[in-house]
Specification:
Length: 191
Amino acid sequence: MEALIRMGEMKIDGFINPGHVSTIIGERPYEFVSKRYKIPQVIAGFEPLDVLIAVYMLAMQIIRGEAKIENEYTRVVKPEGNEKAQQTMSEVFEPFDTSWRGFPVIHGSGLRVRRKFEEYDARKRYEDELSRLDNEYKEPAGCRCGEILRGLVYPDECPLFGKACTPRHPVGPCMVSREGSCNIMLRYGER
């Protein structure tokens, strides 16, 4: 989120934060976004009513000139999150710098297995096989998924959308998943 804000490519009026991640991490890790950047946020579930309520809550913060973190998904997300899961993750994983589709390398945004647990690390276990692969993601020629993920263009502004790139024959990652922006727009139409 901070990388997206700092890239400065677009004005962000608010964030609807993911309920599944928030179930583990809780509300606190988001607080700095509202405090430092004055951006309102709402944690939401995935049912249509959850999303609709989250949009309403976000709109109300914007109207009132507020910038805080609110939790629409209180039936699942607790302010402190799942502390046992956080403790286990902290014990097993450590942060490292990694790149994400459509973004440059983001400091400390990835997780890797700590040395103590390296016998369970698939990256170590299959190191020889993985070394033969080109592990750096390169966007396919003509694909604008990176820009779509950053909110700079709509899916139908990609020259491959609905032509060379369809759910049956996806070219980019935004079409692969049923939750991907391109896949959704192709199935449901209008912006």
